[in-house]
Amino acid sequence: MIYTIKEIEEAYNTGNPIITDFEYDKLQVVKEADSLKSMSALFEYHKLQEFLLKNFKSDFIIEPKIDGISLLLKYSQGKLIFAQTKGNNITVQKEIFNSVLNIENIPKTIDFYDDLIVRGELTIDKNFYLEYLQTQFSSPRSCVCSSIYSKDLSFIKERKIQFIAFYFNTKSFDSSAESKEFFQQMFAVTPNLSKEKHPEQLLDELINYNFFCDGIVFKLDSEKERNIMGETDSDNRWEIAFKRSIPALTAKVIDIHLNATLTGKQSPIATITPIVFDNQSNIKISHVSLNNIKTILSKKIGIGSEIIVELKSLAIPILKQVVIEKEFIPPNNCASCHSLLNNEWVCENYFCNAKISLNLEFIFKKLKFRNFGIKNAKLFSSHCKDVIDLLNLTSEKINHILTPKKAQDFYEQLKIIKKTITSKNILSCYLGRIPMLTMKHLNKLEKFSFFELKHMTEKELISHIGKISGTNLYNLLYNTDIKEYE
Questions:
Q1: CATH class of 40-242
Q2: Could you write out the DSSP letters of every residue in 341-370?
Q3: Where do the domains of the chain lie?
Q4: What is the pLDDT, as a whole number, of residue 53?
Q5: Beta-carbon contacts of residue 194 (< 8 Å; ≥ 6 apart)
Q6: Per-residue pLDDT tens for 136-189?
Q7: What's the CATH architecture for 249-324?
Q8: Distance (Å, rounded) from C-alpha 281 to C-alpha 278?
Q9: What is the pLDDT of residue 16?
Q10: Residues 6 or more apart whose Cβ sits within 8 Å of residue 246
């Protein structure tokens, strides 16, 4: 039987649970972690003005945007019971909780007994980092990340890792400003900045804080207004960051290596002479993506080329311009499985190790597995090639692939996912692997179960989503060894 999350919660709240307490707690962890979203940013003042005039019809606040690692804390009856970070990899709950317990300015108990969600940033003392740690890490964020994910918990205190809160979710307050004022006696909180000052002046004054900032944030103050504006899959509509552009820098290409992507395209990465972007965090860069082989050939980028690199949000370096051109000889074979590439430099080997691993990582994200990323995907790659294989894994097989602790975590999540999964969830795991199949097509098919889709004729699929997409989907369902998951 397949249930929606709404059905599970309604059954649980009415005293007729359809899943165990342990499974329900796991489901809540997934929902809470999903609330850690990224933030859209603007770099030009006139665009900021346009955004505020269009979207902010009620009172708002301005805060420094701290350059750190997002952290969510949950308190119940005055006790800290849960912690979750969001970064490039979703981390193991227990390990992060132990790290959080060692951060001196995070209270383990508070004088507030309603349920409370606290969001903020893990950061580092700026002066301490610049004096003692700058030469050891590429950025303050990487230092924080290394410290909290390390098994050596002493790094947290030695490196002066700290937490600064910016949001308190509780029924006791509707105003963010009021909740921050109340909880600042328990937590370090981001200061509210003056709305009388020009945003450019506020950016200039960020240097005065003893934590790293990469901009300022405008947020609606009222929780009610925030709920009305809502959110997208990636960010909240009720907040926007304003940042200053960082000047681009010139670097020399030392080497170029290729990685196979999810679709089989060969992705070139350039190793460059190290450059340091002159912002508050002094971010060091030694690698930059060159997009694809067509880009290299058209722009004439090779070893010895000089290129101009600019820094985008989340410290991502982007190729801006080629100053000195050099020749590049394109490869004939896949960088992962060494199969011959087609004339578009794409690996067409369905069993390419890199493609399978990246596909499994993509599936982990689509199905909202927590604590499982590319490293685990590589472990699974020799045992399953797609989402159906993954759904049919037995507990014995999972125990063979993972350590006992990780295997139990994975299997418990898998049981919950199998109870709530839909045909749209399953097919979304094939996006990028089925030519011309889009979310628009999946929306048209979501009323059918996966079993019904699997037994449709090619003509029936074409009638729902068009000839090319329908034929491609039919070929996948008919020609591959797809069986109903157990």
A1: alpha beta
A2: B-TTSBB--TT-HHHHHHHHHHHHHHTT-S
A3: 40-242, 249-324, 353-479
A4: 94
A5: 62, 202
A6: 888 888 899 999 988 889 999 999 999 999 999 988 898 999 999 999 999 999
A7: Beta Barrel (2.40)
A8: 8
A9: 57
A10: 277, 278, 279, 310, 311
User: With 80 as the cut, is the pLDDT of residue 280 above it?
Assistant: no
- Find the distance separating the first CA and the last CA of the chain, reported in whole Å: 10
Closest CA to 379 of 356, 401, 412: 401
Q: Which two tokens mark 257? A: 């290596």
Q: Please, is 387 exposed, middle or buried when counting C-beta atoms within 10 Å of its C-beta (0-12, 13-18, 19+)?
A: buried
Angle at which helix 140-149 crosses helix 93-101, to 10 degrees, equals 110
Nearest CA among 340, 258, 262 for reference residue 291:
258
> Does position 379 have pLDDT exceeding 80, yes or no?
yes
Residue 479 has pLDDT above 70, yes or no: no
User: 360 is written with which tokens?
Assistant: 């499994």
**C-beta of residue 429 within 8 angstroms of C-beta of residue 387:** yes
Nearest to 375 by CA among 33, 31, 88, 37: 88
d(CA 153, CA 158): 9
According to the model, what pLDDT value does residue 322 have?
94
φ/ψ of residue 161, rounded to 5: -70, 135
| CA neighbor of 191 nearest in space, from 63, 60, 71, 59 | 63
| Cα dihedral 356/460/420/94 (nearest 10) | 20
Give per-residue pLDDT as tens, 295-326.
999 999 999 999 999 987 556 788 999 999 99
Range from 53-57, 332-336, 452-456 carrying the lowest mean pLDDT: 452-456
Task: Please answer whether residues 39 and 239 qualify as being in contact, where contact means their C-beta atoms are separated by less than 8 angstroms.
Answer: yes
Same fold, 40-242 and 249-324: no
Residue 142 tokens read as 């990487």
Q: 180: how many CB neighbours lie within 10 A of its CB?
A: 21
